Every structure is written in C-alpha cells, then in structure tokens.
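User: Just a sanity check before I run the rest of the batch. Below are the structure tokens for the first item. I only need the designed sequence back.
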C-alpha cells in the first residue's frame, strides 16, 4: 500500500508538472463546476442543451471546450488585456522558451500582431522600409498609421516563386536612394532631416520557404533603422533546431543589437500546435532601447478583443510548452526528416515510374541519402540554376526544407514553355476530389508544408494521389469520371479528357506568355501618386471612379490589388497601374471566361455580370475635375 501511494503521488506530480500556467488554471476552472453568471450567454454550454441544433453543436465540440469558454471576469485566470495572473505567467514562460525578453499572446492572428507592432512604433509621416513581398496586414498597417513606405524589391523566378531580397537592397545607401526617388518619402525626410526610418519589416520566411541570415541584417542596419521587425508567421519552429542557426530573428546566445529593437511575429497556428488565429509577438531589447510595456500595451489594446477566446490563449501556452527542448528540437527534426523523406520518395518514383514525366520538388539538386543532411545543402548559392534568383550573396539565404513546392510539367525556371504541360490548378482540383488539400496553387506549382503534425502516412497519401493523377492523365480519362463533383458544377468539361483540358489551359498560358507577364508585373517599379493613407481616405469618402480594366493604365488605385496566385499584393492604395499590370488583368478576364472553375482570383477587382459576360473594374482615386463617382 505504501508503494502504491508513492507511485500515485509521483504520477500526480509528473502530470501536474506538464501543464503550463494558463492551461493548468483553465482546466482547474472548467473542472471546478462554478455557476456562470457572466457572458458568454451559453453559460458553459447549458444554453445549447435547450435546442435540438444546439445539442448537435454541444455534442460536436464537447463540454470541456464550452465550459472553458469564459469571459475576462474570471479573476483566477488573469487578464490578457493587461497581462496579469496565469496569462502573464504563461507569456513569461513562452518568452523564456523562445529566448525573448517579452512575449505577448494574440488571439486574432498575426495580421493583428503585425498591426500591434506597427501601432506601437510608427506614426503618421514616418518613413518605413518594407519588403514588397509582405503580407497585406503590413500594407494595412501602412494605411492605418499614415506612414510613407519605401519598398525593397525581391527577386522572382519564372515559375512564380518569390525569391529573396538581394543583400545590396538592404544597404543604408540604397535605402537612402529609394527615399530620394520617392517624392513623398523625400518630402517626409526634408521635414525631419535627422529622423531615420522608423521600422523595417521583412517576410521571414516567404511562402515558399526562403529565409534570411538575420545576423547579417542586424550588423548592416543596427542603428540605421529604429526597429527591425521580422514577420515570422511561417517560421516559429526555427528557434528550436541548429539547422536554422542565425536564420531567425530571436534565439539563444545571439548578440544584442546596440540600438535597434527587434520584434518577431509568429503564427503559432501555422507551423506549431496552436489552434487557428493563435499568434504571438516576441521582443528582443537592444543595449540602449528597452520596451516600454505601458506604451506597447496601448497598441495592444487598440487591436485585441475585449472578449478573447480562452481556448486560443491556452493553445498559445501549450504550443510554447511543447517546443521546450529537448522535446521541441525532436519535433522540428522529425518535420525536417519527413520533408526530406518525401523529397527522396518523389525522386524514387521518378526514377522507377516517371521516365516520360513526373512532378519535381523544387529545391537543391543535392539531397542527402538519409537523415536530414547538412544545412549547407539548403543555402542558396549564387546563380544556381535550380532557384533562378540570380547572383545572390553567399550565406545570406536558405530554403527551409519543410516547405515543399511541387512543380508540374510545362514551364521551366527560366520561363520557357514546353510543348505540352499540366497547369497546377488542374492537379490541385484533382487532389481536392481525392481528399488532399494543398496550401497554395500557382501556374505550374503547388505548395505543401511539413508541420510538426505531418506523418509518413499523410505524405504517402499525397504521393499515391499524384501517381493516380499521372495514370489518369496518361490515359486521358474523361473529366466526368475522375472529377464528378467538379463537372456537376461545370458541366461544360464533362466530355473532355484530362490530358486534353490540361493542354488547352497550357496552350492559353503559352500563347499569352503569362510567365513573363506575371514576373514583370511583380518586379517592375511602382509609381506612387499619393500616400497610401490619403488614397484610402478618398475611398472612405467615396471620392473614387470605378474604372474598367481597359482604362486603368496611369490611374491610381484606392484599394489593394492582390492576385491569387500568389496572394501577394500587387498594388497598394495610391500607386498607379502600368501597362504590364493592365495586360495581366486583361488576360485574367479572358481566361476566367474561357475556363470557369479555374478562375484567376484577384482581390480588389469589382466583378459585374452583364448578359452572361463578366466585366471587371477597380476603384481608383477620382481624377481632378471629376465631380461624381462612377460607383
């Protein structure tokens, strides 16, 4: 009996030690059985039991989730809004695990985290330096703060994969040239000649997995820019493995900057075990700059909800605890291993089964025979043919191997179209009907991620589905047989063979030289006609013209224009349409009419259907002399 009690005590002590502070407090509260007299109105799930559909909801989500859904009146759980109690303890614990000075949990995504960082550092008229390949939340931040942006231009290959910003784009001299070339930035600098750019924001990593050597950037820009902000929505795992040494913003045993404070924003839900919208802000102070938490919290309160979802807070807490070494290191190593095993499996299928054609996985030609190989294998070498990004600086960029971009036949990295081809939109449409959902689809590429939740069984399913696609393509199977749900919505495709439809879309891409157009429109220099905040202000006041796409050249947009793929804003409010962008929009109009169901989606376009034909417009800043909006 004594031994049994000892075992029970030790087992309880171990279990109690597992739960991090907030999650432990939330579990204890939910198990306590207290009556709820506060919001939310379902009162711990009781309200759902009073309705048949409510009972369905209750049974699906379960009592624990509903009992844990409480408001900020529960004092023993602490406050997210002012970072007290178990919430504060968990944020401190996460800061320790991620080697940061401060951590703030955010319950409405990294879009909001980015806005918090910006509103805590940037004011109207400030010059800001921004990665042109940035998330739209950064552009929203520019609009909201009234900042004056100058953009750093990334490379791009003809497959549509966004590459890194070259190192020489980051030099203070080049940034100054960009300021002088932008009339609004030049005027802002003349007004405050001693004021340096307020913030630099870069995307670390890109959607396709390109990351930067942060130590190189710190040495180059420390003291030249007030705050260095790394949008690491897709890179929260990097701090936990030596594979990513120096390739993430904040880490163990990293030298402090002298002047510039560092912010990193993480989408805990994207690569770690957070639930949707779980995000966090990490802060690393410099030798001379310390974070004023009271000032920062004003920006935090501006953007956070006064009714945060406590399950999201708990998932931030647990996701951080899961990553504490050595467990977190093992999870990241397993992700890298699964990603490399997938790449090796795809090459093996090509060797054994794909002599005529097979899908390529974009990445370096050299691949370790087993294990995770050497990090040096994934560094981007200057002028390497596989990446197509040109003369890159040594040691500055790396491809994260857990991000896998699959290339379909028909287009090479130099932009040359083959005689036959298989556009990626057809492959991913096929995969959807076979139970495989990918992250992003381009012209001849689609993207998947090997998060800490991916297993061999899951990626084997993808390989099998791709093998089945190849078999159906080679046999030119009719669309009605292999994509019945799609053909139910778009019966025009029922009698077409899979190979024939692929070739029709490929020929259309080739005839319109769409690889060149999409590359040029993203790498061309955009001309600003006014500050983004001023252009958006005209939209809010209705001082706009709704302009058909044929008439757009030279007009200034009042909205973000974002084509999908790749989902990167092309124009921001106040910038002018050029010839190449208009050419692309005309192509999209033609393509969408010719191939419904494979539409090119462009956020910012206003679509109207007249007599069965679709017309597209963009809301532009009203021309001088115009007295009435055409909306």
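Assistant: Here's the designed sequence for the first item:
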């Amino acid at each position: 009996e004594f031994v049994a009690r000892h075992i029970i005590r030790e087992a309880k002590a171990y279990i109690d030690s597992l739960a991090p502070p907030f999650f432990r407090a939330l579990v204890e509260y939910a198990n306590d059985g207290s009556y709820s007299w506060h919001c939310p109105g379902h009162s711990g799930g009781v309200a759902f039991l009073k309705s048949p559909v409510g009972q369905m909801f209750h049974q699906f989500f379960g009592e624990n989730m509903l009992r844990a859904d409480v408001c900020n009146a529960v004092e023993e759980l602490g406050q997210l809004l002012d970072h007290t109690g178990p919430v504060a303890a968990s944020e401190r614990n996460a800061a320790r695990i991620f080697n940061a000075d401060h951590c703030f949990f955010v319950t409405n995504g990294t879009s909001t985290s980015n806005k918090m960082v910006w509103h805590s550092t940037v004011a109207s008229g400030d010059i800001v330096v921004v990665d042109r390949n940035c998330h739209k939340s950064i552009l929203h931040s520019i609009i909201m703060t009234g900042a004056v942006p100058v953009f750093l231009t990334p490379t791009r290959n003809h497959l549509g994969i966004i590459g890194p910003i070259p190192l020489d784009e980051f030099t203070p001299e080049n940034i100054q040239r960009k300021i002088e070339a932008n009339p609004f930035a030049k005027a802002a600098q003349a007004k405050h000649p001693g004021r340096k750019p307020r913030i630099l924001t870069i995307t670390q990593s890109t959607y396709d997995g390109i990351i930067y050597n942060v130590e190189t950037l710190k040495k180059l820009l420390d003291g030249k820019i007030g705050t260095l902000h790394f949008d690491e929505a897709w890179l929260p795992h990097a701090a936990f493995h030596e594979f990513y040494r120096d390739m993430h913003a904040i880490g163990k045993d990293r030298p402090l900057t002298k002047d510039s404070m560092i912010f990193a924003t993480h989408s805990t839900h994207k690569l770690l075990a957070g639930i949707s919208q779980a995000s966090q802000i990490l802060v690393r102070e410099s030798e001379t700059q310390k974070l004023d938490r009271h000032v920062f919290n004003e920006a935090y309160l501006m953007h956070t909800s006064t009714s945060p979802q406590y399950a999201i807070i708990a998932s931030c807490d647990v996701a951080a605890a899961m990553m504490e070494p050595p467990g977190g290191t093992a999870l990241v190593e397993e992700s890298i291993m699964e990603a490399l095993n997938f790449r090796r499996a795809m090459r093996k299928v090509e060797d054994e089964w794909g002599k005529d054609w097979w899908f390529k996985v974009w990445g370096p030609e050299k691949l370790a025979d087993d294990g995770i190989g050497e990090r040096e294998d994934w560094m981007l070498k200057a002028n390497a043919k596989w990446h197509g990004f040109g003369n890159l600086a040594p040691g500055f960029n790396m491809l994260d191997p857990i991000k896998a971009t699959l290339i379909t036949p028909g287009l090479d990295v130099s932009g040359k179209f083959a005689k036959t081809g298989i556009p990626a939109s057809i492959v991913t449409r096929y995969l959807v009907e076979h139970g495989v959902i990918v992250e992003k689809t381009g012209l001849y590429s689609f993207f998947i991620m090997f998060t800490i939740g991916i297993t061999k069984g899951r990626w084997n399913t993808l390989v099998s589905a791709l093998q089945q696609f190849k078999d159906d393509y080679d046999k030119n199977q009719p669309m009605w047989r292999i994509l019945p749900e799609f053909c139910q919505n778009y019966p025009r495709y029922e009698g077409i063979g899979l190979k024939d439809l692929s070739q029709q879309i490929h020929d259309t891409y080739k005839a319109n030289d769409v690889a060149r157009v999409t590359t040029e429109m993203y790498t061309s220099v955009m001309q600003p006609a006014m500050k983004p905040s001023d252009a958006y202000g005209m939209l809010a006041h209705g001082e706009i013209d709704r302009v058909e796409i044929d008439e757009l050249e030279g007009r200034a947009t009042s909205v973000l224009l974002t084509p999908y793929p790749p989902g990167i804003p092309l124009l921001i409010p106040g910038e002018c349409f050029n010839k190449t962008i208009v050419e692309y929009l005309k192509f999209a109009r033609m393509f969408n009419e010719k191939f419904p169901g494979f539409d090119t989606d462009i956020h910012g376009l206003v679509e109207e259907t007249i007599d069965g034909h679709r017309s597209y417009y963009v809301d532009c800043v009203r021309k001088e002399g115009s007295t009435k909006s055409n909306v």
